[in-house]
Amino acid sequence: MGWDKGRYYTRSKKVNGRVVREYVGSGRVAELAARLDAIRREERLLARFERRMKRDELDEVDDKVQVLIDATDLLARAALTATGFRQHNRGEWRKPRVRRKTDVPSGPEDGGRDASRLEARTKG
Each residue of 38-94: pLDDT tens digit? Predict the structure, then answer.
């Protein structure tokens, strides 16, 4: 964009992916168009700067939130591990199964059924 040889003002625009120069004119009209283009450039520059500042602020907040997430993950992992849970394939937390004793009970809990089966096996 600018003044070509100081006589007339042109703008450069992209049309269908190609840069095309647009003739604006000369004289007072061209000076006003040049000032208007300069103002628009400044506005775009200011908007870009404001977006960058906002992004930097959000990045700072994101960093603080990530520290909090890491701390709560560590706390949850410690609590689950302390209560006997284990993590299955880096996924869900599982409590290990409680294994029952495989001894043959000899008490009245089973009504003597297992004891009678055991005696039948040993006799035959």
Answer: 999 999 999 999 999 999 999 999 999 999 999 999 999 999 889 888 888 888 888
Q: Is the pTM of this model over 0.70?
A: no
3-state secondary structure of 123: helix
Q: What distance separates the 2 farthest-apart alpha carbons in the chain?
A: 123
DSSP annotation of 96 reads P
In contact, 37 and 11? CB cutoff 8 Å: yes
pLDDT at position 25 is 85
- What is the distance between the alpha carbons of residues 46 and 49, in angstroms, rounded to a whole number? 5
d(CA 28, CA 37): 14
- Locate 56 and state its tokens: 């930097």
CA distance 48 to 44: 6
DSSP state of 103: S
Q: Report CA dihedral (53, 59, 64, 65) to the nearest 10 degrees.
A: 130
118 vs 120: CA distance, rounded Å:
5
